[in-house]
Amino acid sequence: MLKQTPKISENGGVRTACPLNCYDTCGMLAYVRDGRVARLEGDPDHEITRGFICRKGRDFVERTYAPARLLHPMQKDGGEWKRISWDRAYDLVGAKLAGARERHGSLSIFHNYDYGSQGLLRALDQRFFNALGGVTTTVGSLCWSAGLAAQEYDFGAYAAHDPLDHLNSRAIVIWGRNPAYTNIHLIPIIQEARRRGARVALVDPIRTKTAFFADLVVQPRPGTDGALALAVAKVIIEGGMADLNYIREHVHGFEEFRKLAAEFSPERAEGIAGVPAAAVRELAGLYGRVKPATLLIGMGLQRHTNGGQMVRAIDALAAITGNIGIPGGGANYAHGNLTGFGEIKGREYAGQRRGIVRARLGQELLEAKDPPVQVAVITRSNPVAQSPATPKVIEAFRRIPFVVVVDQFMTDTAEMADVVLPCTTFLEEEEIYANSWHNWLAYGPRVVEPRGECKSDVVIFTELAQRMGLGSYFNRSITEWMEYLLAPLNRHGVTLERLKQGPMRFPGAPRVAWSDQGFLTPSGKYELFSEKARADGVDSLPRYRRPEEAAGDAPVVGDAGQVGGSVQFSKYRLHLLTPHMQVQTHSQFANLASRREMEETKTPWVHLHPKAARGRNLEEGDWAEVISVRGSLKARVRVDSSVREDVALIYEGYWLKYGGGVNQLTADHVSDMGLQAAFYDCLCEVSKTGG
Ligand SMILES: Nc1nc2c(c(=O)[nH]1)N[C@H]1C(S)=C(S)[C@@H](COP(=O)(O)OP(=O)(O)OC[C@H]3O[C@@H](n4cnc5c(=O)[nH]c(N)nc54)[C@H](O)[C@@H]3O)O[C@H]1N2
Ligand SMILES: Nc1nc2c(c(=O)[nH]1)N[C@H]1C(S)=C(S)[C@@H](COP(=O)(O)OP(=O)(O)OC[C@H]3O[C@@H](n4cnc5c(=O)[nH]c(N)nc54)[C@H](O)[C@@H]3O)O[C@H]1N2
Ligand SMILES: [Mo]
Questions:
Q1: What torsion, rounded to 10 degrees, do the Cα atoms 340, 16, 595, 680 define?
Q2: 9 falls in which pLDDT band (50, 70, 90)?
Q3: Which residues surround ligand 3, an ion (CB under 5 A)?
Q4: Does 177 sit in the ligand 1 pocket, CB within 6 Å?
Q5: Contact 164, 346 (CB under 8 A)
């Protein structure tokens, strides 16, 4: 079944995989000429990549050879960057870490990491800090944790169908997800499903490029999908489209849910979500009338203060129609199939630990007193640009006496450091890559020698550990670490030798999630009503409450006692959405020459509906000031009828250094569950300004 492919493709490409934090984790072929990577292509033998990759993937050549690459360790000295040797860098960083630990305890050390690379060995940085005795580190997520928490309440765990299973679907609803930009290998699957007769709906406040592949587009006001989904549920239930047999056998809390949904007529949803009642009925019909039908739920959707319950309300649609555990069905958000690796993080070495909620990074660092943070080490992340409420993050980093950043470039975060350590790109080091969308695991070889004095994070933390007398925690080579990671999986045929031959589908990864209907919830059923949620202080039902920053619908008090929507923002009439850009992964690639020249990335653009622009006396290309209660940003105006009249859209990922930084505007709100950053719960206003 699995085609055994050689490491070198027929036309001489070296087989590797893209490290970017992305759904697709593409198989790639790297073509090397005179010791340099000349070109990157999609691996035609990879079941999901199918020979094509995005512009970012191809531009890893430009990224690797960019003149701006950090090539040597550097130290800031009187405000100026000075090159230092690795020896000096290790001595300095080691002394600061040891000193902080001695004087204030290991919790005075802060480690911030994210998924700048999805390589599994990257997690060895956490091992280092655990070996130090346990440090202050982050909890929660900037990315996806409200949705994960929602699925954990509903199903007992998160799980998704294999992407190719969507070919069996007769209806597909893409909800708060923009695969045309963020998950391009989903698009051919959707197209093929459509050719086989599936109808496709897109639910997004923005008529994104994904709308091109949809039969129906519904554009709710941001943060109101909970009400929309409940109204869809009401139409499904009252229209006889619910699967009562399935509900009887496998669903807990239907009666309570039915009563809740009954309160949400399509007309009420129209008032809250700003979509025509007829569109609510059409969406219910598109999804509810045929079977199997699938939901493709996005991470954009859940970056709201009510994001977790929005996902639960949408999951519920799959439960009441019996679209769970069958081919072509599913409430697909993410899966955790690629597990069972050897544990390398060394959690057991940490005697203590302190958590900083990622969404509130600046605030909580500023508040951390016992002990205050003395040394911060930042790996595979760019928190100054990417965390919400940038002004507070900057203030917090300014107050930390010693900051170390490991990166490939002088990012907005690296600029704030005392020492920067240069790391390799994926082309210059060995790694193993997993993901949570498709089920393919891949090995990436060292395709070329590292530039300058760059080292992989693994080498950096190994050498630093040795300097600090922690060498016994790092007594493996990179090959040995990879073997250690894969050892528990060897009996399923996952070996380093095998992976070196080419990517492999994870053995045992199901094509269909929950096919045994064996849910991991307390009741063993799918839980529309979750006691566990209530015990955690969250509504037991996916009750709708308005977003924190919204005027309109009255606050709702739920059974856990919280009140939704408490702040009034009468001055700010636009919902600011800052989702993911096509040609960058977050802040990555923004500094390359190609992006400095491209119109869409050279400066930030704020997209406004023609009416919203006209009402503010703004025209295409004008410079405007975008303001929120937290800060402001200059951006050029793009008049764009694809956004709602009450939405301002700025793609995220612009650097502060280049006049960007959308998170100067965003709030450090936390979602209702899962400690997710609610970036999109943010009101703003836009007015004309000079360039
Ligand atoms: N090109 C590119 N690809 C990427 C990334 C990237 O930066 N660039 N990042 C990767 C990462 S880390 C992630 S997490 C994924 C994210 O990928 P997606 O899941 O696609 O998430 P986003 O692009 O953040 O947002 C998707 C859509 O959600 C919509 N949305 C926002 N609020 C709401 C709402 O209240 N209701 C509804 N219905 N929709 C809403 C936005 O308008 C947006 O079009 O993409 C990955 N892929
Ligand atoms: N306003 C707004 N903000 C957002 C989002 C949004 O939708 N709106 N999305 C959020 C989401 S989903 C995410 S996932 C986060 C992403 O947040 P981050 O992960 O902080 O974002 P990146 O810009 O990808 O930064 C990764 C950094 O790691 C570096 N890097 C790459 N490979 C390696 C490596 O191997 N080792 C080391 N040491 N460094 C490496 C890169 O050069 C880059 O500077 O952003 C979040 N921020
Ligand atoms: Mo993300």
A1: -20
A2: low
A3: 143
A4: yes
A5: no
246 and 163: one domain?
yes
Residue that is last in its domain, among 333, 359, 376: 333
Give me the CATH number covering residue 598: 2.40.40.20
Closest ligand 2 atom, CA of 585? 24
Q: Is 298 in the pocket of ligand 1 (CB under 6 A)?
A: yes
- Given a contact cutoff of 8 angstroms between Cβ atoms, the answer to whether 456 and 474 are in contact is no
Residue nearest atom 11 of ligand 1, based on CA coordinates:
22
Give the helix ranges, DSSP H, for 66-178.
86-104, 124-131, 145-155
Q: Name the residue with the closest Cα to ligand 2, atom 35.
A: 117
- 588 pocket-lining for ligand 2 (C-beta < 6 Å): yes
156 CA distance to ligand 1 middle (Å): 24
> What atom in ligand 1 is closest to the CA of residue 144?
14
- Residue 202: CATH number of its domain: 3.40.228.10
Are residues 135 and 196 both part of a single domain? no
Closest ligand to residue 429's CA:
2
pLDDT for 6 beyond 60: no
Q: Is 377 close to ligand 2, i.e. is its CB under 6 Å away? A: no
Report residue 239: phi and psi, to 5°.
Answer: -90, 10
pLDDT of residue 690: 79
Give yes or no for residue 116 CB within 6 A of ligand 2.
yes
CA Rg value for the chain: 25
Check whether residue 683 and residue 584 sit in a common domain: yes
Regarding whether 153 and 119 lie in a shared domain, the answer is no
For the chain, the helix, strand and coil percentages under 3-state DSSP, each to the nearest 5: 35, 20, 45
> Is the same domain home to 183 and 328?
yes
d(CA 318, CA 623): 45
| Shortest-distance ligand to the CA of residue 334 | 1
How far CA 19 is from CA of 507, 523, 624, in Å, comes to 21, 39, 36
Residue 294 belongs to a domain = yes
Q: Which of 470, 501, 527 is the last residue before a domain boundary? A: 470
The model's pLDDT over 22-33, given as tens digits with 9 standing for 90+, comes to 999 999 999 999
Whether ligand 1 lies within 6 angstroms of the CB of 586 is answered as yes
Read off the pLDDT of residues 313-357 as tens digits, 9 standing for 90 and up: 999 999 999 999 999 999 999 999 999 999 999 999 999 999 999
Measured from the CB, is residue 655 less than 6 Å from ligand 1? no
Whether residue 374 is found in the same domain as residue 280: no
Q: What is the CATH number of the domain that holds 400?
A: 3.40.50.740
Identify whether 529 is part of a domain: no
Q: What is the pLDDT of residues 554-572, one digit of tens each?
A: 344 444 444 444 445 568 9
- Nearest CA, atom 2, ligand 1: 182
217 Cβ below 6 A of ligand 1: no
Find where tokens 């009954």 sit: 262
311 and 228 assigned to the same domain: yes
Residue in the structure block whose two tokens are 């969406």: 283
Asked whether residue 217 is domain-assigned, the answer is yes
How many A from CA of 70 to the centre of ligand 3? 25
Ligand 2 mutation target, pool 93, 386, 657, most atoms within 8 A of CB: 386
Instruction: Answer yes or no: do 371 and 462 share one domain.
Output: yes
Q: How far is the CA of 436 from the centre of ligand 3 (A)?
A: 11
Domain enclosing residue 406, as ranges: 74-142+346-425+450-470
Rounded mean pLDDT, 457-479: 97
Domain for residue 171, yes or no? yes
How does pLDDT run across 206-253, given as a tens digit for each residue?
999 999 999 999 999 999 999 999 999 999 999 999 999 999 999 999
pLDDT (average), residues 426-441:
97
Number of domains within the chain: 3
Which pLDDT score, from 0 to 100, does residue 550 have? 77
Residue 632 burial by CB count (10 A; 0-12/13-18/19+): exposed, middle or buried?
A: middle
